[in-house]
Write a structure and sequence with these properties.
By secondary structure, the protein is α+β, with helices and mostly antiparallel strands. The chain has one domain. Helix content is about 40%, strand content about 20%. The protein contains two helices and two strands; from the N terminus they run ββαα. Strands 1-2 form a two-stranded antiparallel ribbon. About 0% of the residues are buried.
Length: about 60
Amino acid sequence: MRVIGSKNRFVFGVYRRHMKTIGYLGQIDKLFGVPATTRNWNTIVAIVRILKGHGKKGR
């Protein structure tokens, strides 16, 4: 796991999906003092689309 940046209350990082990553996320919880959550890139793209007013992509 690699933290690549932070801004305000957001911390950005990348990781590969391995079992030991769960332990690293627990360390992030302790380091920042709040529970960490993760989102995949598709979720981030969908959030940006909604915030820009483009709504959901057609199914």
